[in-house]
Amino acid sequence: MRRISVVILTTVVLLGAILLGGGRLVTAQDTDLANHPLVGAWMVDSEPENPQNIPDLAVLSADGTMINHSADGSFGVGVWESTGDTTATVTFTILFDDGVRVVVYVSLEVATDGQSFRGTYTNEFFVDPTTVEGSGQIGPGTVEATRLVAEAPGTPVASFEEFFGESEATPAATPVS
Length: 177
Hints:
Layout: H1 2-20, E1 40-45, E2 56-60, E3 65-69, E4 75-82, E5 87-95, E6 101-110, E7 116-126, E8 137-147, H2 160-164
Antiparallel strand pairs: 1-2, 1-8, 2-3, 3-4, 4-5, 5-6, 6-7, 7-8
């Protein structure tokens, strides 16, 4: 009888830990990502040595998720985790219309002022959507990023009309008689 009570008590404690942990077991190693300097919006250059490269935009959230948007219109979705006070690993996947997917693996470090980061990455290509076999990790490449910051509007140097040119007048409708 005592043995059954211990099993029931253990089950109740484990279920309580799972429920209080949002559906996962909470351990002492869980970190508070909300206070990590990586949380925020970033302009990311995956080819800093190439002045013609157009940067990506990335958002890294306090829940450990991330979104990447490239100038070519592709999106990446993934996760990140802290590996130290200013370091982290990121893994995200980009899907293309033709079924190709690219998995990007990143290791990075945020600068002491929290306004930039640098790191290295590799890519793994999955060109056949019917198989789980990838190319293996290709790289490494270098990545640099600058934090996006909120700024109030300044004093305009031109109006939208002046900058983009006068829009052509829309012809007036002719009443039907």
